[in-house]
User: Fold this.
Amino acid sequence: MSKFKNMTKKQKIMYFVNLFLVIFGSVLVSFGNVAFLIPLNINAGGLSGVGIIVRYFTPEQYKVLVYNIVVASLSVILWVMGRLFIGKEFAYKTLVATIVFPLANALFTAVPGVSDGINKIGELVKTAGNTAGGTTAGNYLLAGLFGGVFIGTGVAITFVGGGSTGGVDVLTFLMEKYLHIKQSIASFIIDGTIVIVGLFALVSVDNGMFIACLTGIVTAFITSILIEFIYINSQSSYQADIISEKWEEISRFVQDELERGATIIHAEGGYKGDKRVILRVVIDARQYEILKKRISEIDSKAFVTYTRTSATFGEGFKSHYQNNKKK
Assistant:
């Protein structure tokens, strides 16, 4: 609480924005699972995939209850792991998702009115385009694609908010931290393992589940792509090396308007040996076009190179992992 009181107004706004992103992302993941994957028993990995496997072997009247218990229980276990191995700050944001994700599942599956509407979506997905009312391979693919879009977007949004959906995402953070495996790849590995386990478990008792299991692989792939596109791209920034006679004016703009630091590098031209100044600036993706436009206005003859970075850590950007460790 004292840490929150010591925050600046801008930091407090960002805190609540990140908190909202974690909550919103968790709800999106839950919706994608309940509305598109569960109705067709599509196992795309994650806690929902584990829940679907267990749910399949449960009597019809207990399926919803068992699914929610499995997901909630595993969420708590993984939250404890995140608290122990990733850090306090991460665990607090994950705690929110650990609560919101199971609650959203319960809302979408068990609350009258809401669950009825979600069930209608599921029924439409099952029979869409089939006048006979059955479920075709196209229905499975449609459900898998839309489920992957919602889940991948939701997971990526929670990552941008600095948290997790409270599921196996904790494991992807651990794999990135200790094994240096990108989160999108780690997510695909974990989800793929759960899908394969489900393939052997479900197809062994029902050959009709083969299409659902194959669709789950497609969904996991779509999820991984969206995490890569949304989250990884959100972490990227640009390094600009600027050579200009008006470097001082450009430096003032960078520091006063963009609120970024600038590094002055004294260099010598290779052809004539002229003394020059290279102004090095690191900006986020949103400031890229702003800087380009302003440099062209200040000095249209400036020589500028832009290099895209995969991630930038430090003041004004993302915190280092060690900042999140238990103190």
